Each structure stands twice: as structure tokens, then as C-alpha cells.
């Protein structure tokens, strides 16, 4: 595969993961705070992929940036997985130890609170955060492969 093809594949991988996250949200799986954090690096990777294709003389530099974006979301996914499995504590704002904000008790906007340490969906014992981490690590490999192409 050429560098452009690898970049396109990696950017499309981030697009597919991001689209999948939105599909899960539409069918009723509201995201927690860390789920939302994992989305931003995918959006960045998509933009990086587009810039790399449009600015082809700088594809190698963009490929490194794409690898960094994919590694960032993978790291957040690993951290989130650890919070879900009680390997370590998560942010107090969205984990079991989270404090209740009493100023919001009288609000008319009732929004369900999604806790970061609850697994709302899993397949074969892996949560969405785990799948994001694993697939994002594969995308890191694809981005790095793109840096090595002539």
C-alpha cells in the first residue's frame, strides 16, 4: 500500500470508530465523560488524514501526528478500561466517588448521569472503551506504517 492509502485507511478507521460511537448513542447508550474524551482524538485523526491527503508533500509529518492522535485515544481507552475494571480510580466527577452537585437539584433539565466506572455494553467481556483502545492501537500501527513509506 502507498502512504496515501495507509493514511486514508487510518483516518477511515477513526471515522468508523467515531461513527460507531454516535450510533451507540442514538440507540440509547449515552456516553460518559471519558467516552467523550476518547472521541476528540478520533476527530483530530480524521482532520489530520484529510490535511495529509490535501497537502501531500507533508504526508510523513501528518502521519506522525495521526499516530499521536490514535495513541492518545488508545491511552484514554486503556485508562477508561482500568476505571471500569476497578484497577484504579477514575475522575471523581464521573466515577463511583463522584460528588452530587446540589445546585442542579432544582434544574428542570433532567439528564441521566452516566458513570465512567459502569460498563453499559460489552461483547466477549470487553467494553466499548476496551475495543476503542485495541482498535486505536491498530490504527497507531497503520499511521506508523505510513511514516515508513516512501
Identify the overall geometry. Answer: elongated
CATH architecture: Up-down Bundle
Strand content: under 5%
What structural class results from the helix and strand content?
A: mainly alpha
Overall structural domain count: 1
The end-to-end span amounts to: 11 Å
Number of E-type strands: 2
Assembly type of the shown chains?
single chain
Main sheet characteristics: 2 strands, antiparallel
What are the segments in which pLDDT stays under 50 over at least 5 consecutive residues?
none
- Lateral arrangement of strands in the main beta sheet: 1-2
Query: What is the number of helical segments per DSSP (H or I, 4+ residues)?
Result: 4
Indicate the CATH topology: Bromodomain-like
Mean pLDDT: 90
Radius of gyration: 17 Å
- The helix fraction, in percent, is 55-70%
The CATH class label is Mainly Alpha
Give the ordered list of helices and strands: HHHEEH
Characteristics of this structure?
150 residues, mainly alpha, Bromodomain-like, two-stranded antiparallel ribbon
Descriptive overview:
By secondary structure, the protein is mostly helical. It has a single domain, classed as Bromodomain-like (Up-down Bundle), CATH 1.20.1550. Helix content is 62%, strand content 3%. The protein contains 4 helices and 2 strands, in the order αααββα. It has a two-stranded antiparallel ribbon with strand order 1-2. α1 (3-26) runs parallel beside α3 and α3 runs antiparallel to α4 (128-148). It is elongated and about 50 Å long. The mean pLDDT is 90.
Put the structure in a nutshell.
It contains four helices and two strands; from the N terminus they run H-H-H-E-E-H.
